[in-house]
Amino acid sequence: MIKSVSRINNEIPITRLLSSKELLADTCNHCVPVLDVLNDPFDLLEVLMVMPYLRPFDDLEFQTIGEVVDFVSQTLEGLYFIHRQGVTQRDCAAANIMMDSGPLFPPGHHPVQLDYTPDGVSYTSCFMRNQRPVRYYFIDFGLSSYFKPGEVLLAIGTKGRDKEPPERSDTRPYNPFPLDIFILGNVYLKDLCKDMTGWTFSSL
Fold first, then answer.
1. What is the pLDDT of residue 204?
2. SS3 per residue for the chain
3. pTM of the entire structure?
4. Burial category of 197 from C-beta neighbours within 10 Å (exposed 0-12, middle 13-18, buried 19 and up)
5. How far is 146 from 169, CA to CA, in rounded Å?
6. What is the pLDDT of residues 118-127, one digit of tens each?
7. Measured on CA atoms in the order 146, 150, 153, 156, is the torsion positive or negative?
8. Which pLDDT tens digit goes with each residue over 108-156?
9. What pLDDT band is residue 196 in, cutting at 50, 70 and 90?
10. Which of 13, 30, 94, 98 lies 20 to 30 Å from 56, alpha-carbon distance?
């Protein structure tokens, strides 16, 4: 996939940092890797960021508790990794969490008509996540901030998909690290718990 990004946005340097060879080797890294950054031939103020094709994490329903637990574990691991690099995502809402669905669709699927084969002719079938586990990724670091060691952990800004965090402000600085935790917690509350009515954990 190719995304057009402003040259003056923080997204390019932060995403490149998280996509460095050293950090990509860390299995805790759940940030979408940048494959290349190209000059936009039509707009000198934009660049084209090339990334792997990913699918929304909730495009396929979770079928088991184990699948949900794996999603929560991976996203918590990924957010902790991001924070350890001095980066706050600041927009880790559901729309910015994706999955590599390759294991579920060995022949692939159409990038627009997701229920169809790559040629768009016929319906495709898929495995369950508990049969072939997937990996989850955070995308879109356009609102993210990077803090050098020892730097004051404060930011301003109200932009973001989740409008509920109380600390967001354009005038009063706030710590953006707890903000990430609030937003991800809202993903679990609103995008997972609402679909789990009647689910129970079996005793071991």
1. 43
2. CEEEEECCCCHHHHHHHHCCHHHHCCCCCCECCCCEEEECCCCCCEEEEECCCCEECCCCCCCCHHHHHHHHHHHHHHHHHHHHCCEECCCCCHHHEEEECCCCCCCCCCCCCCCECCCCCCECCCCCCCCCCCEEEECCCCCCEECCCCCCCCEEECCCCCCCCCCCEEEEEECHHHHHHHHHHHHHHHHHHHHCCCCCCCCC
3. 0.91
4. exposed
5. 18
6. 888 888 888 9
7. negative
8. 888 888 888 888 888 888 899 999 999 999 999 999 999 999 999 999 9
9. low
10. 13
Written as six digits, the tokens of 149 are 């060691």
- How is residue 51 written in tokens? 């990334």
Spatial distance between the Cα atoms of 58 and 8, rounded to a whole number of angstroms: 32
